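fold description:
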Amino acid sequence: MAYTHLTRDELVWIETYYHQGHKVSDIAKHLQRALQTIYNVVNFLKAGGSAISYYARYKQNKANCGRKKVKLSTQHIQEIKDKLTLG
């Protein structure tokens, strides 16, 4: 089975079950997720976070993934423009 990230709905379910006093193992079975995954969220909630802030942090971290944009110097840009005008 391929790994899939937690959705916002799943995070809200985890938060709801946690505040209702359910065991982490019961939450994991209900959502069919690994215990460690649930513990990661629960520990974040214990530290004062919320499901929405957990998801926002996840999205911010994902924005840092991938290749960085190429930044050309003004000299290189001018050289490219000169070559294009020559044809």
Remarks:
- Residues 51-63 form the longest helix (13 residues).
- The chain has a mean pLDDT of 93.
- The CA atoms of residues 17 and 27 lie 7 Å apart.
